[in-house]
Amino acid sequence: MAEITPVTEWPDYSDNPRGGDPITQDLNAPYDKGDLCWLLVCTILCWQITPAIGFLYAGMHRRKAALTIFLQSFFCACACGIQYWIYGYSLYMSHTTNPILGDLSIAVFHNVLAAPSMANSDVPDILYAAFGFTFVTATAMILAGAMLERGRLWPSMFFLLCWTTFVYYFLAYWEWNPSGWLYQLGLYDYAGSGPVHIASGFGALAWSLMLGPRITDSTAHERKRAIHFKPHNPLLMCIGTVFIWFGWFAFNGASTANLSLRSIYVVVNTNLAACGGGVCWALLDYAYTGKLSLLGFCSGIIAGLVGITPAAGFVPVYVACLVGVLTAIASFYVAKYKYLISVDDGLDIFAIHGVGGYVGDILTGLFAAQFVPALDGVSGDAYAGGWWNQHWRQLGLQFAGATTCAAWSFFVSCLLLFIINKIPGMHIRASEETELRGLDFAYISDVDWEGLTPEDRGILAIDGEGVPRGSASSNNAEKVTAAAKHD
C-alpha cells in the first residue's frame, strides 16, 4: 500500500488543476472540517428552495395551472442541474482572463476536485461547484413563474435553458469570477442580486410582455382581460414561503464560503430583513384595504430576502431591517401600479425580484461597512465599504452594475423569446382554447374532451381543470362531475 502524505502546499493550478493525487496524498488535510461541513449542509438545504418556489407559485396560481408550475420546479432542478454540470459551471468559474465569459476547460466538472475554489481558498472547488448548482436552479425557477397560465410548457422549458446560458452564466461570470469585468470594477454583490434576482425579475418582465395578458370567459361568453386572480391555495403559498425563508439562511449564510463570524452575521441580517419586509408589506396592505393580507406577508418576506441578498455580507446589523422595509415599499408600489404598463405579472416576479434586487444593490452601496466582510477572517481591508465609510464611489458602481444586469437580462430575454417563437411548433403562448382549459398539465387524465357536451365543457372550464385531448372514457359524466367538485 502506497504511503499517503498530507498536502501541505497546493500546486500551481496550471501544473495540477485537481490539487494533487488522491492515491498518494491526503487532499483533505489543508481544509477545516467545520468549513466543509457548513458549506455542504447549506448546499443540501439550499436545494429545497427550488421546489419551495414551486409550492409558492402553485399556491398563487389558479388551480388549473398549479401542477404545471410545480412540474417546472422539477424541470429546473433536473435539466438546469445537468446543464450546469455539462458546461454551466465552466462558463462562469473557469480559470480564464477573459472579462466576458469563461471557456469549457472544466466542462462536466473535468479536473474539478480538491484545488481551492476561486470564491474562497478555504473550500475545495468541487464543494463550491455543488453549492453553485443550487443558485442556478433557484434562479431558473423564479423566472419560470412568468409563464403564468398562458405559456406553453415545452417552449418555456427550452427558453429557460437558453436563458441560463445567455443571461445567468454571463452575469455570474461578470460578477463572481475574479476576471469578470464587474468584479474587476469593484461591484459588491454578496449572494447574487444581479445574476439571481435582477436577472430573473427583468427576464420575467420581458416574458410577461411578450406573452401578453391572460384571458378568461365569463358565463355569458364575453371575453375579458384577466390581470389578477386570488391564490387558489393560501396554505400551499405559505408552505412555500416558509421553506424559502428557511433555505435562504443557507443561501446567504454559506456565501461566505467558510464558517466564520461573518456567516453568523449574515444569518442575523437575513432574518431581520425578512421580518421587516413582511411586516411592512402587510401594514401597507392594511393602510389601503383595512385588512391584513396573508399574501402581503408572504410577498413582503420574499421582498425582504431579495433586498438583503446583495447586502447581507456587507451591511451592519443595525440597518438590516431597514433594508427589508425599503425593499418591500419599493416592491409594493411597483406591484400596485404595474397595470400602468399593462403587464400581466400575476406573481409579481418583476416587482419583488427585479425591483427588489435593484433596490438591494443600491442600498448595499449606501450601507456597506468595511468591518462586516472582514468578519470572515480572510478579507481584511479588501473592501472599502460604501457611504457608511465615506466611500462615495461605491454607490455609483452599484447603480451601474444593477442597471447592466437589468438591461442585459431584459433585452436578451426578449431576443431569445422572439427567436424561439419563430421556430415551427415552438410558439411561446398557448392557444386560447388551451389556455382556458389548462391543457398542458391536468389532474384528470382520462376524460375525452371531444366527447363532452358544451355544458360539460363549461363545468371544466369554470372549475379550472385542464383535460388532455384524445383519451378515451366510457363515463365522462361521472368524471366531469368529480372534476367540478374537486377541491
Description:
By secondary structure, the protein is mostly helical. It has one domain: Ammonium transporter AmtB like domains (Ammonium transporter fold), CATH 1.10.3430. A two-stranded parallel sheet has the order 1-2. The chain has a two-stranded antiparallel ribbon with strand order 3-4.
Characteristic key phrases:
mainly alpha, two-stranded parallel sheet, disordered C terminus, Ammonium transporter fold, about 475 residues, two-stranded antiparallel sheet, single chain
Topology:
Blueprint: E1 5-6, E2 25-26, H1 33-47, H2 49-60, H3 66-93, H4 125-144, H5 153-176, H6 181-185, H7 193-211, E3 214-217, E4 223-226, H8 234-253, H9 261-289, H10 294-308, H11 320-336, H12 349-367, H13 393-422, H14 432-437, H15 454-463, H16 476-485
Parallel strand pairs: 1-2
Antiparallel strand pairs: 3-4
> Helix/strand/pairing class, anyone?
mainly alpha
- The CATH superfamily is identified as Ammonium transporter AmtB like domains
CATH names the topology as Ammonium transporter fold
Please tally the β strands and state the result.
4
Question: What order do the SSEs take from the amino end to the carboxyl end, as H and E?
Answer: EEHHHHHHHEEHHHHHHHHH
- The number of helical segments is 16
Q: How do the strands line up in the largest sheet? A: 1-2
Low-confidence residue ranges: 217-226, 439-449, 457-487
**Number of folding domains?**
1
Radius of gyration: 24 Å
General shape: globular
Estimate the mean pLDDT confidence.
85
The end-to-end distance, rounded to whole angstroms, is 65 Å
The CATH architecture:
Orthogonal Bundle
- Estimate percent helicity: 55-70%
Estimated share of beta-strand residues: under 5%
